[in-house]
Amino acid sequence: MFKIMTAAAFLTLFTCAGWARSSPTPKDEKSGAKSEELSKATQILEEMTSSDQIPKPLLTQAQCVGVIPEMTKGGFIAGAEHGGGVVSCRNGSGWSAPAFFSISGGSVGFQAGLEKSQIVLLMNQQGEQYLMNDNFQLGAEAVAAGPTSGTSGSVGWKAPVLSYAKSKGAYAGINLAGSTITIDHDTDRNVYGSGATTQQVLNGKVQTPPQAQQFVAAVRRTTQQG
Fold first, then answer.
1. How many domains in the chain?
2. What share of the chain in percent tops pLDDT 70?
3. d(Cα 226, Cα 224) in Å, to the nearest integer?
4. What is the DSSP letter of 93?
5. For 23-55, where are the alpha helices, taking DSSP H only?
6. Are 124 and 173 in contact (CB under 8 A)?
């Protein structure tokens, strides 16, 4: 009886050890989640730019392009919204590998009763400078709802950051004033190595990893002239 119990205990221990080895580590899980986020961001960027709702001149002039696959209105905190995204910037050799960021704030354009939105951000050079600060408040002077192709009049830059949203199949500019963008340094280091800084990533000094190549290619296609 003792031998049977000992054998059973050994078998259980061996099985658990094997399961532990085969189970994904937290780092693997985070990497997989970010790969999925990049895939969704690629799809959203292509969908929102193929509709021609975002004026082509603004896309071709953009210094940085960011995508938030899902901006969600919190159910337990009134008026609180949060989302995570990726952003790529122009450099001397093309477009950079993407940096990861989070965005949060109150009353982020959900006045029409929208609970979830996919968002595209276009930034000019001043917007890129804000981004390099790692953590910046999108005040009324820093961000504006981007004009659409059907908008009458000029489609020039109204603010350093222009924002567009898609929700329930509709496209429109969205007001992000009052929200805060924070660079996700932990994820950047996890993806690019402990020595990589966000500035190095966005300046094109870090090689684009395989899981991000489709996103960078989509940014390149949607912003090219002609």
1. 1
2. 72
3. 7
4. T
5. 26-50
6. no
